[in-house]
Amino acid sequence: MKQHIDQPEKEDKFLNFLRIEEDSKTPKYKQIVDTIVSDIENGIFKIGERIPSINETSEEFYLSRDTVERAYKVLKRKGLIIPVKGKGYFVANTGGPKELRILMLLTKLGERKKLIYNAFKNKFNQDEVTIDVIIHNCNPYTLESAIIENLGNYDHYVVMPHVDVVTESLIDTINKIPEERLILINQEIDGIEGRFSSVYEDYENDIESALNQGYDAIKKYKRLKLVFPLTNHYLPSIKSGFTRFCEAHHLSYEITDTFKHDLLCDGDLYIVIEESDLCELIKTAEARNLKFGEDIGVICYNDTPVKQILMGGISVMTTDFEKMGETAANFILEKKTDRIKNPFSLIKRRSF
Predict the structure, then answer these.
(1) How far is it, in rounded angstroms, from Cα 235 to Cα 131?
(2) What residues contact residue 116 under an 8 Å CB cut-off, 6+ apart?
(3) How far is 235 from 226, CA to CA, in rounded Å?
(4) Which H helix or E strand runs over 245?
(5) What percent of the chain has pLDDT over 70?
(6) Pick the CATH number of 8-91 from 1.10.10.10, 3.40.50.300, 3.10.180.10, 3.40.630.30
(7) Is residue 167 very low, low, confident or very high in pLDDT (cuts 50, 70, 90)?
(8) Domain 100-200 top-level CATH class
(9) Superfamily for 203-319?
(10) With a threshold of 0.90, does the pTM exceed it?
């Protein structure tokens, strides 16, 4: 490798371009990495040129030496710079491993979505990836706009396509994402072309299968009541799977859109989707001295930490949210394309 002599004017040029934003959520060491990578890619520094030392950068920007040293270690691991004993650090490569840029488009960032996000994020070396999140709140126009504005800006697009109405325009927009960069999570939608990856829930078959797992405990109840809200974008296939289970086993059942106090009857089992309905059910049962698992039963849809301890444990039918995030990350890390159904199961606790 050809090594140049020190060139102060180039170092000054670098130091003038380096900007550390004190209020940025991006760690300072990563700001240093991003700046140097950008300068190398844009030709401000060429192969063989010396970059400012750790001490120079630390003193110029009032940064701790540990912060700068951490940044330089990342750059060394990327193969962009090498240390030369007694001389400093030199640019070794302009085409080192590129930092992965991933965009996640989620319906919302509630407890369950955080489990997906954290499991996904934790599969990566945090020094080598940037993961941005946009929340579309099940609005097809918000999701479409977010995709259009970010086309070409990311290596991978992890899309949760659960929206109020699937429009043709949204389908066309998702199809603009190169198939090898697209990962659908939570559900699939018709019309997406190519060999994209997905990790999905099969709502209708999932709920029927989970209820079948608990049939021996369920059959003791007089009637099954599904409290299925009209709002919050739940798929009607959940109702279909519930109905199919009840009719296959000749069980009496009822479907209502909200829990009402007069709905509570001794001997019934309640399948509850929304936590607000669960709260009303618990308050009404306590007021009438009805015990869960004895007088009445309840199974909730999707697990949360609160349900694990509430009333000694609320039974749930749930997908494995952490597994969903891990599977999506593995598509990227293992450079594979696949369509995988996410695990879904009944977790029986004390509530039925």
Answers:
(1) 28
(2) 106, 185, 321, 322, 324, 325, 328
(3) 14
(4) helix 237-248
(5) 92
(6) 1.10.10.10
(7) very high
(8) alpha beta
(9) Response regulator (3.40.50.2300)
(10) no
